[in-house]
Amino acid sequence: MKIARERKSSVLASNAVHHRVDSLTGIVTLAVILGANFMQNAAWLDPVGGLLISLMVIKAGAENTLAAVLELADRGIDNEVKGSVRKQVQKAFADVTEGHEIELRDVSGLKSGQNYLVDLELAVPSTWTVEDVKEVEDTVRTRVGGKVRGVRKVRVRFTPKEVPAPPKFDEFIPGDVSAKSSPEPEDDDHDHPNHAIVIKSDLSVVSEAKVDFDADFGAKYGVKKGVLTNEAEGEVYAPVAMWLDALELVLVRLRAAGCPVADIRGVSGSGQQHGSVFWNARAQPALRSLDGAKTLVEQLGDALAYEFSPNWQDHSTQAECDQFDAHLGSAQKLADVTGSAAHHRFTGTQILRMRKRRPQVYADTARISLVSSFLASLLLGDIAPMDCSDVTGMNLWDIAAESWSAPLLALTAGGDVDGPAVAELRRKLGDVRMDGGGSIGAVSPYYVARFGFSPACRVVSFTGDNPATILSLPLRPMDAIVSLGTSSTFLMNTPAYKPDPAYHFMNHPTTKGHFMFMLCYKNGGLAREKVRDRLPPSSGSQDQDPWASFNKHVLETPPLGIRDPAKDRARIGLYFPLPEIVPNIRAGTWRFTCARDGSDLREHAEDWGPEADARAIAESQALSMRLRSHNLVRRPDDDDDNEPTTEGRPQSLPPQARRIYLVGGGSNNAAIARVVGDVLGGADGVYKLDVGGNACALGGAYKAVWALEREGEGESFDDLIGRRWDEKSATRRIEGAGFRDGVFQMYGHDAGVLGAFDEMERRILRVARN
């Protein structure tokens, strides 16, 4: 039996059991015979002896049968084998250079027949190279395979030693395993990546690293697309502790990628706009005394008054939005003061809801940070001030007065404008830094000790993700960025301040007196995918582009679906698989037609087919952007920068954007780019902006360069970055996309089809408002 156990052989074990049972049955038989000879009236011993022998045979047979059956199925390795593996792995470390730095975190695996398939998790310093870990892997595999009987395969997984051990099952695929073959990936920078990028003064990229919340922390925090949801309340939020872990992990990966961290002179960046973090009274002392030997979560986990941060997709604050819109007299007056009407995701409405729904959390809150200033606080080792641009996404900041709006603070805090509640909220919000450049302090000693930063590294104020996006290139006035991801965003740099409840105006993050005009839509790529999936595939191979049929119908359908000007009506519509932000309309699909001049608007009750929908959805999404931006643009010939105009275009052009830069997954689609140019124009063309994987991170890096290297406060961001920016490598003009004379005019200006589109939205709002 000893040999059988050593060999893990059920055949040898069966033979041993057979001999053992024979011996035991012989002993029982002998005992029965002796008992019968020495005891009177012992006839009962015979059946009892027979019963004992039968039970012994049954027990041995059952146990051996079960063991043999289990041999046929894969199962986890037992503790004895794990102990042997651990012993040999530890011995292998002694044969490796700097083996004392290696940590064995886990041993697992399968027993398949007589073979063991072993999985090891080893933690090594993040600075080790691929060659270093290859030496470890070879040594460990050779030792374990040669010394532990039955081991046929050893697989080694390496993790950074500086990062806490991941949770069990962290490699399992989360619940949504649907195929996503779209070239418009569901990759909204609002939610998914934590991206770090390091550049030189000449703007060339040195190193990059990325953390994906779902892939890296989905198992630990239960997030999907970076967030948690409470559908009953309409709440969407993210665990703040996950962001603490993510910051550490992205810095570990940055070092592992070979980044010369000690040479970094300045740090800036961006955070998801509108989101808020609620600190308690322990936060500031904890930030100022961070210990490089411990993780951020260990030291800041109990510094939060609320463990979650509301996400931009949250729609739980309709009652609070109604209060904000009414408080100054109307939504227009609120927009005049703060740059925007009330929106679910804006910080002011979220704080008001927090005070009403979770009064103890609000009472325990010592400071409130935006996500951008929260991230800056972590790097600074102190509560950082809010940024001049990001603060204008709160519905609390008076843009003209450059101060907190006392009436809106009174609404949020509850009480009189001069009362203690408003004074307390002012303290919670803190100061705002109106200069987008310059340093707010040196990086915390925590990052010097833990990650090797230089003590001289400076922290520059962080801004929101949307303001940072317009810093990813020297965006001149009247240039626009259109982000075509799952959601869609329209951004423009403009000196004109013309607020309206339908869109947003925010301070420009670097240029005083300029503003960022912004439109945000929930229904972007997802809505286009819904139409795409209704179309029959184009003829061709099985592996063709899934957008081929959609693109074919977009390009082959004339503008507005008008093939015969004498009899065809213009087709427009709204395609909202999700409740929309702009306009504030619930989920649904509506189709309308009108005359070419925009008159005689009628709802088209019947489905006109996915072939027509392909062009209609692309045009209608762009028409919504044109409707809300057309009063901000001017004729390109009126530009005051005296730059030469593009050759070959008409002498006098209608008002439109000068250049349109496309980013996001949809920017890869030439058909959609063509429609964007048809509807929005682009006197100097439509360009695909290629700034790597994350425009927000790059904009933050450019901001750091400008802040630390500008020649006094007079040198603008556009001047400094414009001289160093390599436009040819960062942009590509999309052939055939841009202003087309005759086509652009078909959509109208204040009237025409654009006016009909406006009227269509108003009609739908009356019956389908969120």
Automatic annotation (TrEMBL):
Signal peptide segment: none
InterPro entries cross-referenced by the UniProt entry: ATPase_NBD, Cation_efflux_CTD_sf, Cation_efflux_TM, Cation_efflux_TMD_sf, D-XK_euk, FGGY_C, FGGY_N
EC number: 2.7.1.17
Keywords, comma-separated and alphabetical: ATP-binding, Carbohydrate metabolism, Kinase, Membrane, Nucleotide-binding, Transferase, Transmembrane, Transmembrane helix, Xylose metabolism
Source species, domain of life: Eukaryota
Gene Ontology molecular-function annotations: ATP binding; D-xylulokinase activity; monoatomic cation transmembrane transporter activity
Transmembrane helix as UniProt keyword: yes
Major enzyme class: transferase
Entry membrane topology: Multi-pass membrane protein
Domain Cation efflux protein transmembrane: 4-72
Places the protein is found: Membrane
Residue ranges of every copy of the Carbohydrate kinase FGGY N-terminal domain listed in the record: 312-471
Catalytic activity entry: D-xylulose + ATP = D-xylulose 5-phosphate + ADP + H(+)
A cellular-component GO term for this protein: cytosol
Segments of this protein annotated with the region Disordered: 166-194, 531-550, 628-657
Domain Carbohydrate kinase FGGY C-terminal: from-to ranges: 481-708
UniProt-listed GO biological process terms: D-xylose metabolic process; inorganic ion homeostasis; intracellular monoatomic cation homeostasis; xylulose metabolic process
Family: Belongs to the FGGY kinase family.
PANTHER family documented for this protein: SUGAR KINASE, XYLULOSE KINASE
Job description of the protein: Highly specific D-xylulose kinase which participates in the catabolism of xylose. Xylose is a major component of hemicelluloses such as xylan. Most fungi utilize D-xylose via three enzymatic reactions, xylose reductase (XR), xylitol dehydrogenase (XDH), and xylulokinase, to form xylulose 5-phosphate, which enters pentose phosphate pathway.
Listed name of the protein: Xylulose kinase
